[in-house]
Amino acid sequence: MKFFGEENFITEIVWQRTFATKNDSKYFSTEHEYILLYAKSISGLTINLLERGEKQNIRYQNPDNDERGPWTSTDLLRMEHRDNSVYTIVSPNGKEWTPQSGTSWRHPEKEMLELIANNEVTFGSDGNAKPRRKRFLSEVKQGIIPQTIWKHDEVSHTQEAKQSLNKLFDGVPVFSTPKPIKLIKKMLQISTAKESNDFIVDFFAGSAATAEAVMEQNKEDGGNRKYILVQLPELCDPESEAFKVDYKTIADISKERIVRAIKKIEKEIKGNKNLLNENENKNP
Ligand SMILES: C[S@@+](CC[C@H](N)C(=O)[O-])C[C@H]1O[C@@H](n2cnc3c(N)ncnc32)[C@H](O)[C@@H]1O
C-alpha cells in the first residue's frame, strides 16, 4: 500500500489569505493560496464534521414557540409533475394553494395532511402564506461537512498572523510569513479527534505556528494531540529584526515561539480557572 501520493489525494482548498487589494498587481490581485490535502491512506479515512456555529444556526428561529425548538423552512413544491401529488392545500386562514402546471407537492396528499396535523408545515405569520416544510435544528446533522473555500473572516489572514506573532514577541517582527493559528486549527478539527493521541508533524516549522495551534486546540476541547516540528538551523538575515534581538537562526525563533506560546496558554488556562472559581464563590 502506498502512503500519500496522488492516489491518496483528497481535495484542494482555497484559502483567502488577504483582504487587501494590491493595486500595483499587473493583471489581478491574488488573494488566495492553495492547501493540498492528501491522506496517508485514503482507505478508511474519516474527515470530521465541523461544529455548527452561529453562522449556520442563525437561519433557525422559533417564531411560533414550537416545543421542538428553532426551525427553518424549505420549499414543499417540486419542479416536476407527479400525478399523485397535485392537489389543493387550504391554509388555516382559507387561502387555497394548488401547484402550477409542471410542478407538484413533494408529498402525496395523505402524507401532507399528516405533516400539517403535526404542525410540520408553516403558512407564515399571517397563516396564509405558501406552505413550507418546517425543518428543526434538532434534526439536522450535528456538524457541517467541510467546504473547499476557506475565507479569511473564518480562518484569518496573513496580516493577523503576523500581528499576533509580533505581539507574542513583544512587538518584534521576527518572522514574515507565519500562518494564522485559526487556519491550522481548522485543519486539526477536520483531521484529528480530541480523544486521539494523534501526532501532528510539521516538517517546515518556520515560526512554529503549528505548535501553538495544536496547544490552542487541545486547550479548547481538552484534547491530547501532540506535535513534532522540524526546522533547519537556517540563518536569519543579519539585517533582520530577529537577528538583531539575537535569534540567529529560524530554528531559534521556532523554539522561542513554542516557549512563549506555552506560557501564554498556561496563563489563559489559569485565568479561566480563576474566573470559574470566582463565579462559583459568587453563586455557590
Ligand atoms: C514558510 S515557512 C513555514 C511557515 C510556518 N508554517 C509558519 O506558520 O510559521 C517554511 C520553512 O521551511 C523551511 N524549509 C525550507 N526548505 C526546507 C527543506 N528542504 N527541508 C526542511 N525545511 C525547509 C524554511 O527554513 C522555512 O522556515
Describe the model.
By secondary structure, this protein is an alpha+beta fold. It has 3 domains: 1-40, no CATH class; 58-139, no CATH class; 156-284, no CATH class. The protein is built from 8 helices and 12 strands. The chain has a 3-stranded mixed beta sheet with strand order 2-1-10. A 3-stranded antiparallel beta sheet has the order 3-9-8. Helix 5 packs across helix 6. The chain is elongated, with a radius of gyration of 27 Å. The mean pLDDT is 94. Bound molecules: S-adenosylmethionine (SAM). S-adenosylmethionine (SAM) is lined by residues 175, 177-179, 203-204, 206-207, 209, 231-232, 234, 250.
In round numbers, the mean pLDDT is 94
Domains, number: 3
Identify the overall geometry: elongated
End-to-end distance: 58 Å
Structural class call reads: alpha+beta
The main β sheet shows up as: 3 strands, mixed
The total count of strands amounts to 12
Molecules bound to protein: S-adenosylmethionine
Helix content: 25-40%
Helices and strands, in order, run as EEHEEEEEHEEEHHHEHEHH
Question: Rg from C-alpha positions?
Answer: 27 Å
> Which percent band covers the strand fraction?
15-25%
User: Strand order, biggest sheet?
Assistant: 2-1-10
Low-confidence parts, pLDDT < 50 over ≥5 residues? none
What is the number of helices?
A: 8
